[in-house]
Amino acid sequence: METLVSTWSRTAQILPENYVFPIDERPGSVEVPICQNIPLIDLAEGQSQSQTIDTILAACEEFGFFQVINHGVSEDLIDDTMKVVKDFYDMPDEEKAKVYSIDPSKSCQLYTSSYTYADEKVHFWRDNLRHPCHPLDECIHLWPEKPTNYRNVVGKYSLEVRKLSLIMLELIREGLGLKPGYFGEELTGSQSLSVNHYPRCPNPSLTLGLPKHADPNVITVLLQGSVSGLQVFKNGRWLGVEPLPHAFVVNIGHQLQIISNGKLRSAEHRAVTNSREARTTIVSFINPSPDTIVEPAKSMISDGVPLYRSFKFKDFLKFYEAKKGDTEALMEAYKIKP
Ligand code: OGA
Ligand code: NI
């Protein structure tokens, strides 16, 4: 196994040169303020459904991000899942070596930075474990065998988070006025889990855990844990997303921006590191099935001209990966020119 950053950085006193980002991408040492305005959605019973939908829609238009509490996923399950993924990274190297793979065609991958590590000029300060999770019975056997409760706990978590993602999509569907069943198996048929581990970093001002990007999927449900690090780019400024215990951070992916014909924002974001403690995040991505044709919903096109052309999801993904975080160039390529 090539060494994971979480392994070799335990004794690192200085940040290696190949983790130093270009000056205009570095976070620097300026404190980024925690944004108090990113909406908090309370799904507890007794809330007015139409008000919840209005708040979600406004959040998706303005920030592309919101947080959810009282979401129905049990706190014990959240704690158990966070523990088991941390236990995964704490295992001895020999165990992680069994999972280590940078090959994107493999179902379960574990690597440092990204799977294009070998071609990168600068690496991201993170390790990443990633695998599909839907349908669960078709992929659970591909997951890490250790820790011994990984499959059991993460399996339950994946199902619960999928349920929550579909509830979110249903509220968004109603808010956009799309027909019932719009977000069916075609648009949500694929789900993957990505566990980011950002070790303590000797110089957080020079590097990033994840550089500026927007997510290429439909909707993302992220568990940030108790350590801050997620930042959203808005009006040319970075805003911190507050870590709230047991809350999920939800954000809009490129597919929802396109389906909504540009009404909802797929916002750019990044993850910064810190020198005090490691940070672990659990990210669930809902994706269309690879061959699904994605396009702006007919009812979202007010003047007869859609903003984006239609495409096959798998082709979009390929192009997304080639563009390497250049969101503007990516989305321009899918825009219909007047
Ligand atoms: C991602 C992502 C942010 C975080 O995995 O796409 O944006 O805080 N993660 O880990
Ligand atoms: Ni992201």
Automatic annotation (TrEMBL):
**Residue ranges occupied by any Fe2OG dioxygenase domain in the UniProt entry:** 189-288
Record-level Gene Ontology MF annotations? dioxygenase activity; metal ion binding; oxidoreductase activity, acting on paired donors, with incorporation or reduction of molecular oxygen
Q: Entry's SUPFAM superfamilies?
A: Clavaminate synthase-like (SSF51197)
Q: Which cofactor does it need?
A: L-ascorbate
Which InterPro entries does this chain map to? DIOX_N (IPR026992), IPNS-like_FE2OG_OXY (IPR044861), IPNS-like_sf (IPR027443), Oxoglu/Fe-dep_dioxygenase_dom (IPR005123), Plant_2OG-oxidoreductases (IPR050295)
The keyword Iron is assigned to this record: yes
Q: Which UniProt keywords apply?
A: Dioxygenase, Iron, Metal-binding, Oxidoreductase
Q: What is a biological process (GO) this protein takes part in?
A: defense response to oomycetes
Signal peptide positions on this chain: none
Keyword Transferase belongs to the record? no
| Reactions that this protein is recorded to catalyse | salicylate + NADH + O2 + H(+) = 2,3-dihydroxybenzoate + NAD(+) + H2O
Q: What is this protein called?
A: Fe2OG dioxygenase domain-containing protein
- Which species is this UniProt entry from? Lactuca saligna (Willowleaf lettuce)
